[in-house]
Amino acid sequence: MSKQIGFVGLGNMGAALARRLQLTQALHVFDLQPAAVARLVALGSRASASLQALGDACDVVLLCLPTSDHVRSALFGAQGLAAGLKPGSLVIDQSTGDPIATRAMAQQLAERGVDLIDAPVSGGAAGADAGTIAIMVGATAEQYARAQPVLGAISPNVFHAGGVGAGQVIKLVNNLVSAAQRMLVFEGVALAAKNGLDPERACQILLAGGARNAFLEKFMLPQVLKGNLSPGFTLELMHKDVRLACELGSNSGVPMFYGNLTRELFQMAIGEMGAQAQVHTAALMFDRLAGTHVVPAADTAR
Fold first, then answer.
1. 140 vs 108, 115, 145, 164, 166, CA distance in Å?
2. Burial track 13-36 (b if 16+ CB lie within 10 A, e otherwise)
3. What is the rounded end-to-end Cα distance, in angstroms, of the chain?
4. Residue 241 to residues 1, 186, 209, 286: CA-CA distances in angstroms?
5. Mean pLDDT in the chain?
6. Is 3 a catalytic residue?
7. Host H or E run for residue 182
8. Residues with Cβ within 8 Å of residue 70, at least 6 apart in sequence
9. Contact of 263 with 243, CB cutoff 8 Å
10. What is d(CA 30, CA 182) in angstroms, rounded to the nearest whole number?
11. What is the per-residue pLDDT for 217?
12. DSSP 3-state assignment of 61?
């Protein structure tokens, strides 16, 4: 494993990934929010003054940023990583991004002798902290062999999906299915509640039958029905992921019937709740439309 590892992007997910990695590896870190950097420095990381400085100091750099546009800016913007990265360096993009954009950036960096691979994750910040998060890697076999020890320090659940961009493809598929599942659960539980069933009892019965799914088990029953609507992921980010999946479907000739419907439902939720509202707040929209109180009435979380 490389002696010098950097991590860029210390938001909710990035910070959790960095914390896990920091248990076994010394890190150089950078984020636009000084408080986020300070929290990692307090745990033993070393702050970098700029992206360029981090790139110059590190052989392997991991990024976890909101969009591929943010990744491109971090790499190629003024005093960006690319200005400091040495030939032979490895960049691991853990963002949920656009695989087409990622492949283009990988080609651009390859001209400088730098490898870029994608390794998005699924399982939430809690999964990152626990070391159980799934990591989906798009890389050549040689690149994967180089990255695996670094990623394996975060979680043993590392999957080689295929070539560069393949990790982000399967992550978009994952989030598309997860997002559609979430909206269908909100709709189904509202239907049960409107027709006299207690929402908690309805979820318990669904979990025992063919409708069992990860969202019901991990979020609807223990969080949404308790009034906790703050999983640390916004409506804007979920809408972005579904939009990217739909665009990928359009570009590759795959019909996206459920995907486009899900995208529109999230757009509707953004219109009602605001882009920065937490993703669980879409349940409040279903409560309003159905005239139900699946979310405890006292909760008005945004």
1. 16, 10, 9, 7, 10
2. bbbbbbbbbbeebebbbbbeeeeb
3. 42
4. 32, 19, 29, 21
5. 95
6. no
7. helix 166-194
8. 9, 95
9. yes
10. 33
11. 95
12. strand
Domains (range + CATH), the chain: 5-162 (3.40.50.720), 169-290 (1.10.1040.10)
Other CB atoms within 10 A of residue 101 CB: 17
The pair phi, psi for residue 208, each rounded to 5°, is -90, -5
**Distance (Å, rounded) from C-alpha 289 to C-alpha 283?**
10
Annotated catalytic residue, options 171, 194, 218, 240: 171
Residues 162-184 have pLDDT tens digits of 999 999 999 999 999 999 999 99
Question: What length does the chain have?
Answer: 302
What tens digit of pLDDT does each residue of 116-138 get? Answer: 999 999 998 999 999 999 999 99
Nearest to 140 by CA among 117, 106, 159, 156: 117
Which has the closest alpha carbon to 102: 135, 68, 65?
68
Which burial class, exposed, middle or buried, applies to 157 when counting CB atoms under 10 A from its CB (0-12, 13-18, 19+)?
A: middle
- The angle at the Cα of 118, spanning 113 to 120, to the nearest 5 degrees, equals 155
Give 118's strand partners. 93, 138
Note whether 90 and 60 are within 8 A (CB).
Answer: yes
- Model confidence band, residue 3 (pLDDT cutoffs 50, 70, 90): confident
